[in-house]
């Protein structure tokens, strides 16, 4: 339990006297309008500012996070605000996404951090560490683990200060589809871009042909794929059989999957499942959506699940995703954030390149029945971008 003790010792290192000027508490129903205005101001200088400007959209997301999540237990708090004691002004917010973590043969309550933000004019005053420290203490007896995915360098410093265990980055895999369009967006000289695009297409075809030859044995036995518009009992059966192959994974039961991909107010997802030879058994599923990144049209593999040993099914699902996005005609590249060596192996076989990732993975508040040795080893984890809030922006 050494990592737990280290975390507890560092959590106390908050600027002295800050609690004399600020207080952390749950927002009341009467503060909803004030909180909406806070989000607009707090995110105004952030990359995801466009998602925090429309009042109706902010309210939809708030209800989805705090009310509709099936993993929120009765009267469980999921959101906290930091206020100036004298004036009551909201200057910071920190929320959580409750979930269940499967480990060995049981599940424990855990929480992902989300929407940890402070007003621009109140940053670097110690409010961030004070707010997060307060939240961690408030939920310590309710969860076995607190997790973070993503975050900028300033926030990363706060996590380190509070004793979070750094598990590195959630790997990012990218497969280029329209290299000519990618070069046009990156190069101002269109003649050069066109010339390089022509050469790039040839190189890309060679790389994809090489990956095709490496994976030809899997292509001979590709699994049948069909689109689904809801999650049924077959997905629960898949979870029971496939999750055994993964030491640590966020639980994917029907209620959680419906909440995450069907009831959410963010994206239009397309969901597909892989079937066995007679079409009666679900062997895996994949969730896809379109998005934008740095001016590019991106095909995103939001979630991908099968038994980790079932390379054939994983291959069929990823290969289907590649073809699906290629046939769209307007997708520049396909990306997938995922942490698991077998799933990563398949992505590489299908021509995905491991790119520099900005999605950090950190944990703290490790309590029983979890143990620090198990959860602090990144090789035990199965994580992708749909597990946290990474896929929501």
Care to describe what's here?
- With 393 residues, the protein is α+β, with helices and mostly antiparallel strands.
- The chain has helices at 2-11, 32-42, 55-68, 127-139, 153-161, 179-186, 190-214, 216-219, 233-242, 254-262, 311-328, 341-349, 372-375; strands spanning 22-25, 79-84, 90-103, 106-118, 145-149, 165-169, 172-176, 224-228, 248-250, 270-275, 282-293, 296-306, 333-339, 353-355, 360-364, 381-384.
- The protein folds into two domains: 2-167, Aminopeptidase (3-Layer(aba) Sandwich), CATH 3.40.630; 172-356, Aminopeptidase (3-Layer(aba) Sandwich).
- It has a 16-stranded mixed β-sheet that branches.
- β2 (79-84) and β3 form a beta hairpin.
- It is globular, with a radius of gyration of 22 Å.
- The model is unreliable at 1-11 and 187-199 (pLDDT under 50).
Number of domains: 2
Note poorly predicted spans: 1-11, 187-199
CATH homologous superfamily placement of the largest domain? Gcn5-related N-acetyltransferase (GNAT)
CATH arch. level architecture of the largest domain: 3-Layer(aba) Sandwich
Shape, per Cα inertia axes: globular
CATH class of the largest domain: Alpha Beta
Query: Roughly how many Å apart are the termini?
Result: 35 Å
Q: SSE order, as H and E?
A: HEHHEEEHEHEEHHHEHEHEEEHEHEEHE
Largest sheet: 16 strands, mixed
Please give the count of helices: 13
Strand content: 25-35%
Structural class: alpha+beta
For the CA atoms, what is the radius of gyration? 22 Å
Number of extended strands: 16
Share in helix: 25-40%
In round numbers, the mean pLDDT is: 88
> At the third CATH level, what is the topology name of the largest domain?
Aminopeptidase
